[in-house]
Structure formats: structure tokens, C-alpha cells
Amino acid sequence: MTTQLTPAEWDSQYSRQAGWTRPTRTYLYRQASLARARRVLDVGSGTGTVTEEIAESTIGRVTGIDIDPEMVRFASGRGGRAAYQAGDAHALPFADGLFDLTVCHFVLLWCRDPRQVAGEMLRVTRAGGTVLVCAEPDYGGRIDYPDLPVGQWQARVLREEGADPCVGRKLRCLFAAPLLRRLEVGVIPGLWDPETLRREFDAEWSLWERSISGHVAAEEMAEVKAADWAATQSGERLVFMPVFYALAQRR
């Protein structure tokens, strides 16, 4: 995302995202036998939030790769178990079949060619190994009540930044069926409970205001924020965002 945040600020956002999808990751890790994997790759590792979770859950060696050198430096400075390096997900700098398990989390929506990235993730995964796409959103399925335009604004900004806000629904078609023994695609029912909406209101709006600024008039944004807060405080606010996952096991 081109929103100007420091790596530490992004780390806070990534940590919140990781909290939303943790139960699904736990399920996927079990299905992929993460605990016994000897080599694991996290594609688009960012600040290392999920990468270090993976490293603490396996006896194997974990590598994180990200296109942003600042993110790589931040993640390397965490002092965790994983190793990090810079690289492009469209051309992963690893040999064929090197990893038992290849993982990504909220990454494909940012990729210029997500099909190519999916192919690269399969290429570097050994026969019998697994690719986990832990979470990819679908803003086209977002529901807001009251009918506030926040999701529409976010989707528009994502498109202008080169992202695909509806990539979630496309996961099944991104993976080459002839290479697969198994493909499971599912959806995380992203319905935020009232307490989470209240607790994360300030953090969410801080990010939205910085990303949407310049795309929406300040007066309109202030009105929508006030309406959002009023509905959140009254308990009437509903936010539903489908987030998809995929588990692809190689032949």
C-alpha cells in the first residue's frame, strides 16, 4: 500500500489484521502439518508479524521475503527465529521444490499479476507440499449498515494504488489444477462484533483518513466518521467483509 506509514505503524496494522484471521491460520497450519515442516517460506512477509508466528510453530527453518527493503530491515530487527530477505514475489529467488510449505497473508491483492505469484509459490514448493493463502479480502462483498460509503472509498483507493480489492473471489482460478492434488477454498465470515468495532474505531479511522485523504472531501469524510461513531456507540453498526483463504497441495 502506498499510504505513508512507518514500518512500526504498519506493524500495528498487520498485528490487528493477524488477530482477525488467527483462527483460520491455526486451522490451515494444522492441515499443512506446519509443526513438522523443515523449510517454510512466507511471501510478502512485511514486518514479520505472521512470519514469527510461523517460526514459533515449527521445528523447521522459516524464511520471509518482501519487496520492500525497509520492511525486511524492520522484520530482521525483531530478533526472532525467522530469516528475512528482499525479493519480488513474481520471480521468487529460490530453486524449484525447495520448501515444504509456502505461505502468504493479505498479499495477492497487492500483486501486479497474482496468477504469476501463485505459480511461483507452487514452483518453489516440493511435490506433496502445500501452499497456504491465509487471507485475501473481497471488498465487492462488503456490507455496511448503516449504508456508509467507507468500503466503497477503500476499494476505489486500492484500485488507484494498483491493488485488486476483489481478489478473494478469484483464488480458485489462480492455481493451476494439473499441479494440484488438493485445492480447498473457503471464506472467513468477517463479521465484526460491536466491542471490536468500538475498540478498533480510532485505529481503523486513522488508517482510512491517511489513505483516503485527497480522494474524498474532508467535510464528507468528517460526516461519515461521525455517523460511523454514532452507529458504533449505539450498537447498530454492522460491518461484514468476506475474506477468502486457499489451501493448495501439490502432486
Features:
8-stranded mixed sheet; globular; alpha/beta; 251 residues; Rossmann fold; 9 helices
What features would you describe in this structure?
Strands 1, 2, 3, 4, 5, 6, 7 and 8 form an 8-stranded mixed β-sheet that branches. The longest helix has 25 residues, at 7-31. This protein has 251 residues and is α/β, with parallel strands linked by helices. The protein is built from 9 helices and 8 strands. The mean pLDDT is 95. The two termini are 34 Å apart.
List the helices and strands and how they pair.
Blueprint (H helix, E strand, L loop, with lengths): L6 H25 L7 E5 L5 H7 L5 E6 L2 H8 L6 E4 L12 E6 L9 H10 L1 E13 L5 E3 L4 H11 L10 H4 L5 E12 L2 H6 L1 H12 L5 H17 L3 E13 L1
Parallel strand pairs: 1-2, 1-4, 2-3, 4-5
Antiparallel strand pairs: 5-8, 6-8, 7-8
Cα radius of gyration in angstroms = 18 Å
CATH topology of one domain: Rossmann fold
Give the helices and strands as they follow along the chain.
Answer: HEHEHEEHEEHHEHHHE
The oligomeric state of the chains shown is single chain
User: Uncertain spans, ≥5 residues at pLDDT below 50?
Assistant: none
The description of the largest β-sheet is:
8 strands, mixed
